[in-house]
Amino acid sequence: MTASLFSRLDQHQPSNPDSCSIRLNGIEHQVPRSMSVAAALLYLGQRATRTHPVSGQPRAALCHMGVCFECLVTIDGQQSQRGCMRPVTANMSIITTSKGQSE
Ligand code: FES
After folding, report:
1. Distance 64 CA to ligand 1 centre (A)
2. Would you say the CB of residue 66 lies under 6 angstroms from ligand 1?
3. Do residues 83 and 38 lie in contact, with contact meaning Cβ atoms separated by under 8 Å?
4. Is residue 20 in contact with ligand 1, taking CB distance under 6 Å?
């Protein structure tokens, strides 16, 4: 195990040049560029990506490899995008259908 494989989240400070600005549900945040959208949501404390269409229960990213489709969000106006398959980019707009910060 090497240090380069694992790093603490608090090492990614907003002043870090490897960070970029995104808008999550209309609120601007700084996140590391190396993250997927699904990982960035977790980094920001937003676990729920959407609500189940029948039960209304919050859903969250599960597999983080493009299989389960639990991470669907709207990215730059494109609905139903798998957040785990898209890296964050500067000025990206991400909309979840679940607005809860800790669901
Ligand atoms: S977390 Fe499973 S498809 Fe994205």
Report:
1. 4
2. yes
3. yes
4. no
Please say if the pLDDT value at position 9 is more than 60: no
Contacts of 62 (CB under 8 A, 6+ apart): 68, 70, 71
Q: How far is CA 43 from CA 11, 37, 52, 66, in A?
A: 12, 10, 22, 19
Q: Is the pLDDT of residue 25 over 60?
A: yes
Instruction: Check whether 1 has a pLDDT greater than 70.
Output: no
pLDDT above 70: residue 99: no
Ligand 1 atom nearest to CA at 72: 4
Euclidean distance between CA atoms 103 and 98, whole angstroms: 8
| Domains of the chain with bracketed CATH | 18-95 (3.10.20.30)
